[in-house]
Amino acid sequence: MNSFIDFNSVHTNCINNNIFVLSEIESKSILSKYGIPIPKGELVRNHNEVLEKSALLTFPVVAKISAQGLLHKTEYGGIITNINNKEELIIAFNNLNEKVTNQNIKGYNGILVEEQCYGQVEIIAGFSNDTVFGPVLMAGIGGIYTNLLNDVSFCILPATEKEIFNMLKKLKGYPLIEGYRGKRKIYFKRHTYFYTD
What we know:
Blueprint: H1 7-17, H2 24-33, E1 41-44, H3 47-54, E2 61-67, E3 79-83, H4 86-102, E4 108-115, E5 123-130, E6 134-141, H5 146-149, E7 152-156, H6 161-169, H7 174-177, H8 193-196
């Protein structure tokens, strides 16, 4: 994510306004701040920005509606994948903006355009400050099936690397992470340091 959102302003805004759910862009700005890799992306709001900022990205790209509080973009038709050039991106931009208007999506920030990532398993990770347990990490099988499968596990923070891996092993979908039926194994080791401090 490029630096179109300032980490400190996101943090201050959340604290001052009791915001408990961050937008995708805000979340990714925080992840990036702590060195967690995220797809390269740009927020665009008009055709000029589409043409200008897409030159900074490598096709194919994904275009997504960016709106405060919009957690399930797929249900609104808010994601378009496999966009291969600027012409297709302009069409996708127009289509998504039309959906924002037709579906009266509130808190609209623009269209997030990101370089498309490929992988066999999507993982969801989250963090909350539980009133009883304090800081808690959540991880599970993600993507469009997150709510359907409800395959998540929790770990109280701070946690050791071993505790985080044990949390992952509790997932029903853990065999997917280990390389189910000849698929490549997913290696988490370099990301666990973020949760151990």
